[in-house]
Each structure stands twice: as C-alpha cells, then as structure tokens.
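Notes from the 1:1 (GR / supervisor)

We went over the backlog. Supervisor wanted to see one worked example end to end before approving the batch request, so GR pasted a single chain during the call. The sequence is below; no edits were made to it. Supervisor asked that the structure be written out right there so they could see what the output format looks like.
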Amino acid sequence: MAERTVTIASRSGLHARPASIFAKAAAEQPAIVTIEKVGGSAVKASSILMLMTLGAGHGDEVVLRAEGEGAEESVDALGDLLEKDLDEQE
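Structure output shown during the call:
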C-alpha cells in the first residue's frame, strides 16, 4: 500500500471545481485510491460526492492511500495535483 500526506492548496479547499478535477484524475488512476482528513474516515477518491463530505479546506492535511498496480504513481500524481491551486486550473 502506498501512502502520502499532502496539504490542500486550493483556496476553496476540496470543494466544487477542485473536487471535480481531483475526482476525475483519481478515476483515471490504475490503482484504487482513498483520501481522508487526518483523524477522519477514508472515502473513495474518485467520488465527487464523497469528496464533498470530507469538508477538506485550504491548508488542511489529507492522507492519500492506494492499493494495486501503480499505487505509488497514483498517490504521487494525485498528491501533486492537490498541492496545486485547482481553482486556477483551466
């Protein structure tokens, strides 16, 4: 299992547009990826509805975990994405 802790850079947190961008990217990964706020419950990273329930805001730390083929690459790609301001993505 691969794991990475990242800080959310988007001004609006993991809500609306950033959640949509992140969920789409997670769905494209070869591994199954979950995300959780530190101390919270893990949810499926590819589900926009589940992402919205996290309540993850700007500056919050989240933990990404992946299992299966390409797990390390998946958490790295998604972690790098969360460390960008997705509110400014075209």
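Supervisor's comment: Residues 22 and 81 are 7 Å apart (CA to CA).
Batch request approved.
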